């Protein structure tokens, strides 16, 4: 029996329209509707019983917490309804890893949720969107993909939401998982997994998901990007503006210049959690300096700064204890 796969369209380059088919930049993201995206790939009908729904039509650089939570809510409703076997989300690539990670933290079902997008607009020569959409639907319809959390499928590769990141500004192979590699591939329609992703679902994911979507917004958690001569001037200002957590994208192993470190330590003393992440792409952020431990900073592990930010936002809203949210920094 064909699997029922529902496509939730958010916009992005996969739905982009350009005046010139040779143009891969300067297009309007989110201009092509979900029905048109589905109609462009007749092979979808062989892969699954596909339906579509337009949830947003945005360039994902502009996504807000309200739209991310709308996506969370709709995915939850569909999974709870039992009406679908899997979900595909078409999404802009700029923030795909963030929406994927948020959905993964809040995932509570064994059914697959797969995000996909494109680097070239739908109207481009050699557009990558149609095959990415087909591969995403094939993955969502695959028995193999069950119980593997939220996945990102582009360029024939399957990545976990936890480790995937966009590494290239324009290349079609932009999604990579530098600290573990892809978890699988779609080879001419065959969905193959090489390894099981580490599952990053909150133990009480369903109730936290409900609480977040009722609230409809996420708390202010800024990211500060470490650099030479950083004195952390903006850190106290963020606290005055009501920051509920801070992520410091440090250098190398989450290194923080001493003057910024003092201000972050003051934030922790005031009850604001701080995660040390890294602007480097490879490697874990480990405990490193004793002073970081004394100050009470959490070492970001394999989470990149943008995902660490989402973890803190969810932790604060969901009322998670430090021990509960720090488990996700492995
Ligand atoms: N700016 C676009 C977006 O994130 C880029 C893309 O989809 O590739 O929506």
Short descriptors:
4-stranded parallel sheet; Rossmann fold; binds aspartic acid; 330 residues; alpha/beta; 2 domains; single chain
Strand coverage percent: 15-25%
Count of separate structural domains: 2
Strand order in the largest sheet: 2-1-3-4-5-6-9-10
Q: What's the overall average pLDDT, rounded?
A: 96
Question: How does the overall form come out from the CA principal axes?
Answer: globular
What ligands does this structure carry?
A: aspartic acid
Supply the number of helical segments.
11
CATH class of the largest domain: Alpha Beta
* CATH topology (fold) name of the largest domain: Rossmann fold
What would your notes on this structure say?
By secondary structure, the protein is α/β, with parallel strands linked by helices. Helix content is 32%, strand content 19%. It has two domains: 4-193, Rossmann fold (3-Layer(aba) Sandwich), CATH 3.40.50; 219-328, Rossmann fold, CATH 3.40.50. The protein contains eleven helices and 14 strands. Strands 2-1-3-4-5-6-9-10 form an eight-stranded mixed beta sheet. The protein has a four-stranded parallel beta sheet with strand order 11-12-13-14, sandwiched between helices. A two-stranded antiparallel sheet has the order 7-8. The radius of gyration is 20 Å and the shape is globular. Aspartic acid is lined by residues 12-13, 29, 59-61, 92-94, 117, 119. Aspartic acid binds at residues 12-13, 29, 59-61, 92-94, 117, 119.
